[in-house]
Amino acid sequence: RAARGSSRNVFIQLVGSSGVGKTSLLGGLIEEHDPSQKSNFDDQRNNLMVHHQIQVGGKLLKLLDCSGNERAGHLVKEWFGRSQWVFVVYSLTDQRSYEKAVTLMTDARAAGAGVVLFANKFDVKEGQPIEVDVQQANDKATQLGAYVVEGISLTDAVKFVASESEKEHAGGDAGAEAADGPGSPDGNRRSSIASAIDSVKSWFGSAPQAGGKASQGVLRPSLKGTKAMMQARQSADSNAELRPVQELQDSESAVTCICFGQERLHKTYVLLATASKDGTVVVYRCYRTEMEIAMLVMDDFRQSEATAAPPADHSNIAVHSRLVGHSRAITSIFFNLLEDNLVTTSIDKSVRFWNVDSGEMLKVFTDSSPVPVASFLPFNPQVFVAANSNAVLRLVNVQNGMVLQKLKVETEVRALKFDDTGLFLLAGTKSGSIHVLEATDSNTLKFKFKVQLARGGVTCITFVPASYGQPPCLLVNTSDSSATIIDCTYGPPAGVLTNLAVRHRVRVAHSLLPLKCCYSPSGQGYLISGSEDKEVYIYSLAKGANYKMNYLKHHQVPVVAVAVNHQDTLLASADSLGRVVLWRRMDFSHLQD
Question: How much is the pTM?
C-alpha cells in the first residue's frame, strides 16, 4: 500500500474507451493469478463499475473495472481521487482510444493518483495496422508523470506498481515528501475524498476554495436581483438573499420525497423528481439560469445533444414525465447510475423501475410488506438492496428478480445510504439505531456494528464527504426533534469504517413525519432540513460558527422533503399539502457602485 494511499481504498482503477480490451485484460489476470474469482468476474463483466479483490503474488489487491460508456464518465472520474493507481488502457490500432486516454491520464494525475498508460497490443497481434504514434504516446505519458507499458497481459504492470507502493511504504513519509512524480501516487498530500469531490466540482466550474467563507450563506448565486430587492434585504443576514422563485403543485397530496437528476447530461436543464403520498410521481425539467450556464464547463457536455429551449411562457419549469402505477404512498426515490431510470419504493409493497423520459414502467418487484427504502449497490448497479417493514433487508438482482441474500435486522429499516467508498451501507431504523453493513463483494452484505443514536426513529441519512478539515460525516433526521451530525472514523485497517461518533445535535421540530435533510457545500457546509413547524431549517457546519441556525419561511404547512442540486445553486423544499418551492440566491454584484 502506498504511503500516502491510506485513504485511497482502490489499489488499481482500470479505465479507457469502450472496446479497448480492459475487461478481457482483467479476466486474463484473474485466470492467471486467482482463478477462484473467475465465475464471479464472468457474472459481472457487463456492469458499469465492478469491484474485484484478487490475489496476485500473495497480496490481496482491490481493483475497480470501469466501463468506457461516456455517460458513466463522471462516475469514473470521481474515483481517481480514491485510487492509488489508475491504469489507462488504449488500443494501438485505435487513435480515438489514445486521445481519450490522454484526457483520462490528465484527470487522474490531477487527482493525485499514480498512472500507468497501458497500450493493448491484442489487435496488433491479430494483424490490424497500428494507428497510434507510439513514441508520441510515450512522450506524452512521461510529460504527465505516468509510466508506460505495452503488452497483452496486465501481470507485469500490476506487479510493478505493487512493488513501487511497497517501496514507498517502506520509505514512510520521507519518501512521500518527494516531488509529485510518477512514483508517489499522492504526493500532493490532499485527502483522497477531497480530491474526488474537487473533481466533481470542477465539472461545474471553479470549486469553492477549501477555506470557503463561513459567512457566505447557503447556495451559490444564480439569479440577478433587482435594485428594489437589494434595498429590501437585511444586510446582516446572508440568507436574506435567498428567495422563493417558483412554486410547483400537482395535487394536494403530501410530497414525501424529491431528488435532482441528469445534472451532467443536459446543458440547459436538470430534472427534479417529486413523489407523493397518493402514489403519483412527477418529473420536472428545471431550466438553468444564465448564471448557471455560465458556471458550467462546456467541454463536459456531449456536443451532439440538441439544445432544448425553455417553455415559451418563461416559467423555466416544464413537466418532463409522469410515472403512474403506485397505489399508495411513495417512500423513497432515486435515479440509477446512468440516470435514465428512476426507482421508487412504496407502502403498496412494491419497488418499481421507470423510464424517466417516457414515463413507462419497466419493472415491478413485489414484497410481502411495505417497502420503506431501497438503494443500488454502488459497485454492482445490477443489484439493489430493499428494506421491508418486517425488518428484512433483501439483495435483489435487477435483471431476473432473484433474491441473492436476506438479512434480518432487529427492527424496520427506514433509511439507507452508502458512504462514498461504496463499501459501507448505513441503515437507520425506526428504533433510532444505525446499523453499519459492509458490501464484502458485489452481491453480499455483512453486518459490522451498530450504534444507538436516538429515542426517535431515523427518517433520513445524508452522507457528507470529508471537507474543510472535517472528517466524513452523516446528517441524520430522527423523530425526537433533532438532526444529528455524526463523524465517520475509518481505520485501522485503512479504508474500513470502524466507528460513528456524534459530533453535535441540532433541534428540528420533528415527531411524526418522515422528514428529509440534505447538504449544501456552500461556505463551509450547511445542513438543510424540513420541519413540522413549516420552516426550512439551515444550520452552518463551519468550524467556529457554533451551528448557527437560519430558517426559510414560506410554506404554510410542515416541510417534509428538501434537496439541493449538484451545482449548489437550487434548493427545493416540498410540503404536506403537495407544494414544492424552488429557492435561489440572488446576485446583486451587477448593481454595486
Answer: 0.79
581: which 3 cell numbers?
A: 418551492
Q: Quick one: pLDDT at residue 51?
A: 84
- What is the structure's pLDDT at 192? 36
What is the per-residue pLDDT across 558-584, written as a single tens digit (0 to 9) for each? 999 999 999 999 999 999 999 999 999
List pLDDT tens digits, range 36-86. Answer: 989 888 888 878 888 888 999 888 899 999 999 888 888 899 899 889 999
Q: How far apart are CA 567 and CA 469, in angstroms?
A: 21
Helix segments in 457-552, DSSP class H: none
Question: Cα(442)–Cα(446) distance, rounded to whole angstroms?
Answer: 12
Range in 107-111, 154-158, 490-494 the model is least confident about:
490-494
SS3 content of the chain, % helix, strand, coil (to 5): 20, 40, 40
- Report long-range pairs for 487-491 (Cβ below 8 Å, ≥24 apart): 488/419, 490/7, 491/6
Residue 157, judged by CB atoms within 10 A of its CB (0-12, 13-18, 19+), counts as: buried
| Block residue for cell numbers 487522474 | 108
What CA–CA distances, in Å, run from 324 to 142, 187, 344, 357? 55, 52, 11, 13
CA dist., res. 185 & res. 176, Å (int): 9
More confident residue, 498 or 440: 498
Map grid coordinates 449538484 to a residue. 566
Give the span between the Cα atoms of 113 and 109, in whole angstroms.
5
- Residue 492 preceded by cis peptide, ω within 30: yes
Of 77, 39, 78, 36, which is closest to residue 60 (Cα–Cα)?
A: 36
Query: Residue 567 contacts by C-beta under 8 Å, 6 or more apart in sequence?
Result: 204, 220, 222, 263, 270, 292, 295, 296
CA distance 585 to 387: 37
Q: What is the DSSP letter of 496?
A: -
- Rounded distance between C-alpha atoms, residue 587 and residue 222, angstroms: 7
**Cell (9 digits) for 397:** 438482482
Measured in degrees and rounded to the nearest 5, phi and psi for residue 316 equal 65, 10
CA atoms of 75 and 73, how far apart (whole Å): 5
Counting Cβ atoms within 10 Å, is residue 400 exposed (0-12), middle (13-18) or buried (19+)?
Answer: exposed
pLDDT tops 60 at residue 212: no
